[in-house]
Automatic annotation (TrEMBL):
Gene3D superfamilies: Lipoprotein localisation LolA/LolB/LppX. This is Outer membrane lipoprotein carrier protein LolA. The keyword Lyase does not apply. Keywords: Lipoprotein, Signal. It comes from Kordiimonas lipolytica. Pfam families: LolA. The lineage of its organism: Bacteria, Pseudomonadati, Pseudomonadota, Alphaproteobacteria, Kordiimonadales. SUPFAM superfamilies: Prokaryotic lipoproteins and lipoprotein localization factors. CDD domains: LolA. Residues 1-23 form the signal peptide.
Length: 229
C-alpha cells in the first residue's frame, strides 16, 4: 500500500438522566429509597477520558494487519497532544510521523511525502485528551463474548462517511496508571476492508526524545533507501 486511509473522528458525550425526586402524599405509604445504577456506557466513557488525561506518553511494539493479508511490525511512540511515530522495523520502507499539527506519511522507496492536517485524521481521538473526546461524536460499547470487560470506542465522521470508521479497544488493567490498557484499534474503510493494529510491550508516561517527531525528507535524494531515521 502506498497510501494511508484516514478517517474523521467525532465524539459526543453520553448522558444519563438524573433520577426524579418524587413527592409523597401524606396519605400514601413511604416509598423505598432506590439507587440508580450508573449507565455503563457513560462509565466506560469516563474511563477512556481518564486514560487520555492520565497517559501523556506511550511506547509500544505494534503489529499491523492489512486487508490484503500483509503484516508489518514496528515501534510506536506517542506523546499527547498531537505527536506520534510509527517506526517500521521490518522491510517496510515507510515512516509515519505526526509533529503536533501535521500527519506525515513518508515513503522512502519512491521518495514521497504525503501530508494531512492531524485534526482531520482518526488519530485525533488517540492523540488528544478528554476535552477532544468530549467534542467528538462516537459510540462507546462494552464487552464481547469472552471479553465482557472490553471497552470499544467507535467513530465515523457523519459529514464524510466515505472515510470509514475507527474503533479503539481498551481493557481494564490495574497495572496501568489509569486502570486501562490500550490493546489497539482497527479501521474500516469505505470498501468494507479492515486494517488492524495491535499493541504489545507497552510503557506509559516515559520520556521521549523530541527528535522522534522529525524525519529525513526523501524528496530530492539521488538514491532511495529502505531505512528510516
Amino acid at each position: 500500500m502506498r497510501s494511508v486511509t484516514l478517517f474523521g473522528v467525532y465524539l459526543a458525550l453520553l448522558a444519563v438522566p438524573a433520577p426524579a425526586l418524587l413527592a409523597q402524599e401524606a396519605d400514601l405509604p413511604p416509598l423505598e429509597e432506590q439507587s440508580v445504577e450508573e449507565d455503563q456506557s457513560l462509565k466506560a466513557l469516563r474511563q477512556v477520558q481518564a486514560y487520555m488525561d492520565g497517559v501523556e506518553s506511550l511506547e509500544a511494539e505494534f503489529r499491523q494487519h492489512a486487508p490484503n493479508g500483509n503484516v508489518a511490525t514496528g515501534r510506536l511512540y506517542l506523546e499527547r497532544p498531537g505527536y506520534v511515530r510509527f517506526d517500521y522495523t521490518d522491510e517496510t520502507p515507510f515512516l509515519i510521523v505526526a509533529d503536533g499539527t501535521t500527519l506525515n506519511f513518508i515513503d522512502y522507496e519512491i521518495g514521497q511525502v504525503t501530508k494531512w492536517p492531524l485534526k482531520k485524521t482518526p488519530l485525533r481521538a488517540l492523540l488528544g485528551g478528554s476535552i477532544d473526546l468530549a467534542s467528538l461524536q462516537a459510540n462507546i460499547s462494552r464487552g464481547r463474548p469472552g471479553l465482557e470487560d472490553l471497552i470499544l470506542l467507535s467513530a465515523r465522521d457523519p459529514e464524510n462517511p466515505e472515510q470509514g470508521e475507527i474503533t479503539l479497544y481498551f481493557m481494564p488493567d490495574e497495572a496501568m496508571p489509569t486502570g486501562l490498557r490500550l490493546l489497539g484499534w482497527n479501521v474500516l474503510d469505505a470498501k468494507g476492508e479492515t486494517t488492524e493494529v495491535a499493541l504489545t510491550d507497552q510503557q506509559v508516561n516515559v520520556s521521549l526524545d523530541d527528535a522522534l517527531w522529525t524525519f529525513e525528507d526523501p524528496r530530492g535524494l539521488t538514491k532511495r533507501r529502505r531505512t528510516r531515521r
